[in-house]
Amino acid sequence: MDLNHINLVVKNMEQAVALFTRDLGFTLTINRNNKMAVLENNNNFALVIWGQILNNEENLPVYPKNFHIGFYQQDKETVLALFGKLSQNEQLKFESGPKNIRNTFGFYFYFENLMIEISVSPFKENIL
């Protein structure tokens, strides 16, 4: 069974689409008036970005504690390069810089209230 998509709710659609396309390698497939967008990556994985306005709510969406999405990178150098790029974005909040976490190397950051993890796959050999 393959995962079809994940639906994320955000307040600022334009910034979310920019983050996922410009910085995280997704391609915009559908954008419905900056209220809902579908993005895809090279693995045929779809990410649906749903604007909070469609929920008839003004506030930032709230995710459960520890809910997050994660993206694997090829190696430690790629993680460091992506951190350098993302850390220039003033809309993002970082818990810390890249470091050893569990059995891998990576970092966490927040877009609005959504936590995102960037790390090397812990299933690769000799990552640390």
Automatic annotation (TrEMBL):
Domain Glyoxalase/fosfomycin resistance/dioxygenase, by residue range, is 3-109
Read off the Pfam families from this record.
Glyoxalase
From what superkingdom does this record's organism come?
Answer: Bacteria
**What protein name is recorded for this chain?**
VOC family protein
Record organism: Chryseobacterium zhengzhouense
